Amino acid sequence: MSSETQYDTEQAFSELDTDAPRVAIVMGSKSDLPAMEKAETELTERGIRSEVRVMSAHREPDTVADYAKNARLRGIKVIIAGAGLSAALPGVVAAHSDLPVIGVPLTSRTSVSNGLDALLSIVQMPPGVPVATVGVDNAKNAAVLAARILGI
Question: Angle CA(131)–CA(110)–CA(62) in degrees, nearest 5?
Answer without folding.
Answer: 45
